[in-house]
Amino acid sequence: MIKRLFKSLKPTHLFSIVLISFLIFQSEDREFHLFILLLFFTLIFLETLWSQNTSNIVFANRNVKTIVKSFSDFIFSNQLTLQLKQEKFKSIFDKSSDAYFILDSKFRINVYNDKVTTFFGQLKEVLFNEWISRNSPDSQPYGGESKKLFKAMVNSVQRQGEIRFEWEFKGKSGDQIPTEVSIITLPISETVFYFVVVRNVLNQKKIEDELRKNLEREKELNEMRSKFISMASHEFKTPLATILANLELVELKLEKQGVSLDQFGIQKYVQRMENESTRLNILMDEVLQLGKIEAGRTPYSPDLIHIEKFITDYLNEYIDKTHTTREIQLNFDIKCDSFWLDTDLIHHVFDNLMSNAIKYSNDEVIVNVKVDESSFLFEVIDKGLGIPLNEFSQLFESFFRASNTNHIPGTGLGLVIAKEFVEIHGGVIVCESEENKGSTFRVAIPSK
Ligand code: ADP
Fold first, then answer.
1. Could you say which of 128, 158, 227, 337 is the most buried, measured as most Cβ atoms within 10 Å of its Cβ?
2. Distance set, CA 36 to CA 13, 14, 42, 255, 263 (Å)
3. Is the pTM of the predicted complex or chain greater than 0.70?
4. 405 ligand 1 Cβ < 6 A
5. Nearest ligand 1 atom to alpha carbon 395
6. What span, in angstroms and rounded, lies between the C-alpha atoms of 112 and 63?
7. If DSSP codes are grouped into helix, strand and coil, which group holds residue 303?
């Protein structure tokens, strides 16, 4: 106490003591001066006692304004900083939209803010666990008895120092309040305090539920659309195949009887019917393929492929199949013979890039292939129509057809499918193009 008394002496006090002592030794009436000195010390003593009493934590005080000095003294040393920080802390505490508690080491409520009463009504308990029990339903929506669950949470905060969990409370009017609770340990000096934040996430939950429902609805609609497309394309494909087969039969029959279509002047009509049916057939195939991609049902089974043989065989087959007379220049730069590829998917990619290069140009087509341990690269280069600059950004979009190619038949789906198939391999496809100069489509696939 004496030590504290001396500690609490301020310079003004010291000055007064020196002055009074001087007067005592100068004055005649020493008794009176001694009395004043004694009175002075008693006053300092009482002041010290007063400041000591007001600096204790008022336990379970219901008002944040009573965050008192001794607790804060643990946190801040400098008086001025302490005051500023206290005020800052107090206003954060008061203005927060979350409910805050400060608990002592025994989970007794020391301090809490107004939001606690706003959300849950008057606080009657001293123990936080009792408050939780009164304000929570018997069990939590994700399963488990509230009491047991909270005990487990307390154990883990004591073990790991910090915890965050979802908790459902009962509101003032019995309504359910979904919250997110964070408990943080605050080791201050030798004492432990807990800082509890209860955040109301009702609005967030409502938005989440709405989003989830919309997503499910969209998923259902997508599935329905995919099913419809796949069913419709199948339904279209059978009559188309019948039309094509019957057209061929008519030609054969006439041929057998030594009559040609030209004799009747109908060759060009039959040819048109064949062309359009073939086009529709390709469109149906591509739509079906897209449906599969969207539904995530594209089979992907890569094999270790001998690249040089695979590409040479492919190109020979392609020339036979399409009867193209176009010059195709094939260049290899092979540092590694084999590579993991899904041949069906890569065939599709090549088919699309090759047919486009031939369709949209009149000159030779160059195919460059480069393989090493880390990647498989190939380019298809043509010196044809190219893609107008202002339409270039739409190149890989479904049903995109550049304005300079409108007169040439196409579906606008081939590149979308090619891109998907390259991406299934973890690769990328890019294009460089200049209108009336030509295009280069470049594919890069990383090794597995
Ligand atoms: P399709 O060729 O059947 O129309 P794609 O998806 O393969 O469909 O191509 C989309 C569009 O991109 C084409 O219609 C064409 O306008 C443009 N395009 C693609 N490749 C080339 C190319 N090599 N040269 C010029 N334009 C091209």
1. 128
2. 13, 14, 10, 140, 142
3. no
4. yes
5. 12
6. 7
7. strand
